Amino acid sequence: MMNLAMQAPASIPIAFLLLILTVSSSSASNPRLLRLPASVSDKYLTKDEKWFNQTLDHFSPYDHRQFGQRYYEYLDEFRAPDGPIFLRICGESACNGIANDYIKESLNVKRNKSNIDNPWFVFGVSYAGALSAWFRLKFPHLTCGSLASSAVVLAVYNFTEFDKQIGESAGPECKSVLQEITSLVDQRLGSNEKAVKTLFNATELKNDGDFLYFLADAAVTAFQYGNPDKLCNPLIEAKKAGEDLVEAYAKYVKEYYGGSLGVGVETYDQQHLKKTTLTDNSADRLWWFQVCTEVAYFQVAPSNDRSKIIFTNGSQDPWRHASKQTSSPEMPSYIITCHNCGHGTDLRGCPQSPLVPEGDAKNCSSPDAVNKVRQKIIEHIDLWLSQCQGSGRSSISIVALRGNDIPISYLVYIVYRCKSWILADAPVVPQL
């Protein structure tokens, strides 16, 4: 974000009242915690701290405890009495002052010492961006608007999209190298744990899970903060040169993640997170608590899709939104689109009733749409059964040729029989 105080035209009166939302400072941030790295610059518009008494529990009318909360204000460009006030929320990170470079420093602001009639505009990045959006939604009468930059407003249960995006952002070549590094690190942990942790200057991480999370975050940082070349270029070059990939990655982790960003290994140590004494790294502990309990940002690895499952849904079926509607290589998904394509159309046809549960595809407004998906089903079944030893492929091939000429229920019955010969002594008729 540009320096609003320095870049604003002289005709626009502005004021900054900046508030810290945490009581401890942090030298760097954990990328999976969504925080921006702290500024390494000593150039501040002001470092003059101000304090007020903040309510500890805003939800209880009986809890009157308070704590001291810090903020900063910059008034040099402000034209009294009716100038707009820009409130920049610092979020879960601590701030040391109002920096010249707003791209590198999270700042936080709250209305204070000002006429309530002044127009307010709220800013925030990442988690603070979410706070700025929520503030605007809850108190529209107090603000003119909000800039919610990269605002993480959604609580995502089973947050697998995070890691999937890393794979997409890395691209095929870099992703492949990272996957190879992961495999190599796993192998070396099993054969010589001390040596591999020493290579990354991470011997204090006794728990292998903590260590692997540290390595994963180091890679994430490059993409989250717009430095993919810092990671991918040297790794791809090392791969082409036949160099040790784990050593190449360790060099990146130590020089960029630990060096340039100043991320401390100890913040990944479970034992460190159990300590309640306030230190320079307490902000990490507090944020982990939020991630794992309140805001549901904890990232988990995508599940293994290699399950060979075909998902089908009718376009008019309201239940399809509770099903899988996006395809993946081993879990294809098809939407049968027509005016009366409802629940189970591929198996039951159209329309359905208690007396005729199977229906008839000919009664669907677009029989071709149904038969097209049925043919896809046959192709997948034919392929997957051919990959099983003794799958009875010839029987399925006959069905595939006649798939559009027979009721789908009989098709499934024949397919099921072919498969049941592999799994059981006698075929089992499925309940359709």
Estimated radius of gyration = 29 Å
Could you state the order of secondary-structure elements as H and E? Answer: HEEEEEEEHEHHHHHHHEEHHHH
How much helical structure, as a percent, in the residues? 25-40%
Overall structural class, as computed from helix and strand content, comes to alpha/beta
Give the overall silhouette.
Answer: extended
How many helical elements? 13
Strand tally, please? Answer: 10
Number of domains: 3
Terminal Cα span: 59 Å
Q: Quote the beta fraction.
A: 5-15%
Structural notes for this entry:
By secondary structure, this protein is an alpha/beta fold. The protein folds into three domains: 4-149, no CATH class; 161-293, no CATH class; 311-423, no CATH class. It contains 13 helices and ten strands. It has helices at residues 4-7, 127-138, 161-191, 193-199, 208-224, 228-240, 245-260, 270-273, 282-293, 345-348, 367-386, 393-402, 408-423; strands at 15-19, 44-46, 50-55, 66-74, 85-88, 98-99, 120-125, 145-149, 311-314, 333-336. The strands form three sheets. A six-stranded mixed sheet has the order 3-4-1-5-7-8. A two-stranded antiparallel sheet has the order 2-6. A two-stranded parallel ribbon has the order 9-10. Strand 7 (120-125), helix 2 (127-138) and strand 8 form a beta-alpha-beta unit. Helix 3 (161-191) packs across helix 5. The protein is extended. The termini are far apart. Mean pLDDT is 74; it is low at 1-42, 99-115 and 391-432. Residues 1-28 form the signal peptide.
